[in-house]
Write a structure and sequence with these properties.
4 helices, mainly alpha, about 130 residues
């Protein structure tokens, strides 16, 4: 006499989970790319932007060119105001609903979160001569 065996468990992949039609399966891509880039760009912008004041060591703060002073003012302004802008855009890119209608906004916010660090690095590397 044989014993009846129960049917084997089909496994977690046997029945696919239904995905709503308007859900964006790739909603995580833009915020993740922004996260990885910000891991490297934000500390570099903060460090190099903080050191950019040493460009005035050879001429003193009063005798430097107006272009150098303008660039340094822009760098420190962006460091001061760009931090909250970067944080707000970064958090909003992750927090938006993962629906297709928000995918363009999410990508724009992820790109906007990269603008302040990239701008600071551009200004640091293109500082005018003292």
């Amino acid at each position: 006499m044989t014993t009846p065996h129960p049917a084997p468990y089909p496994g977690p992949h046997a029945m696919p989970v239904p995905v709503p039609a308007d859900q964006d399966r790739h909603a995580w891509v833009a915020p993740l790319v922004a996260t990885v880039l910000l891991i490297f760009l934000a500390p570099a912008a903060l460090f190099l932007g903080g050191l950019s004041a040493m460009a005035t060591d050879s001429c003193g703060p009063d005798d430097c060119s107006a272009a150098l002073n303008t660039s340094l003012t822009l760098i420190y302004g962006i460091l001061e105001l760009g931090g909250p802008v970067t944080l707000a855009a970064f958090v909003a890119a992750w927090a938006l609903p993962w629906k297709r209608r928000w995918s363009a906004v999410r990508a724009c916010l992820a790109a906007a979160s990269l603008l302040p660090p990239l701008t600071v690095l551009f200004l640091v590397f293109t500082l005018p001569a003292p």
